[in-house]
Design goal:
Radius of gyration: 20 Å
Helix content: 10-25%
Number of domains: 1
Distance between the termini: 70 Å
Number of strands: 9
């Protein structure tokens, strides 16, 4: 078990269990990672729990954030309470009082949360989203047609010269 506290920055830690209280770690590889009031650039673990901290990239089987933030999460189960997520991909998501950019899941349970794009097979709860699954598909279709037309017109104009 590796424990760290303070404001020092460490490059890489590999252990079975990592408890970080304060400070920043560049890369973490472990079975179990607990971060409290600290952060990490990249985390690869079976179970990740962040309380009032953050991470840039999280790869895990289970990821839980409480009043934390993550740029990207890839996990089977993602639980976020009063946090912020850039992109999260997983099988099951439970998001409470949080904000997210993109959520992609088979099953999503959201409560008083908002996302820019939500792509999920089953959605339960109260969520505000800019683009749902249908909206994202429609936006992609329209964007594809628009780009195709611009390229087509560009080729027509370059052929005439």
């Amino acid at each position: 078990m590796a424990e760290s506290s303070g404001s020092t920055k460490q490059e890489e830690i590999k252990a079975d269990v990592i408890n970080l209280s304060g400070g920043v770690i560049d890369t973490v590889e472990a079975d179990l990672v607990h971060i409290s009031q600290g952060g990490a650039n990249r985390i690869a673990a079976s179970d990740v729990r962040i309380n009032t901290g953050g991470a840039a990239m999280i790869y895990a089987e289970h990821a839980a954030l409480h009043q934390g933030a993550a740029l990207a999460i890839r996990a089977e189960t993602v639980a976020v309470e009063e946090g912020n997520i850039g992109v999260a991909v997983g099988d099951h998501m439970n998001v409470v009082n949080s904000r997210a950019g993109v959520l992609y899941a088979n099953q999503a349970e959201l409560s008083n949360s908002s996302s820019v794009i939500l792509l999920a097979r089953d959605v339960h709860g109260n969520v505000e989203t800019v683009l749902d699954t249908r909206g994202a598909m429609l936006a992609g279709l329209i964007s594809g047609i628009a780009v195709g037309l611009v390229l087509f017109v560009g080729r027509l104009l370059t052929r005439r010269r």
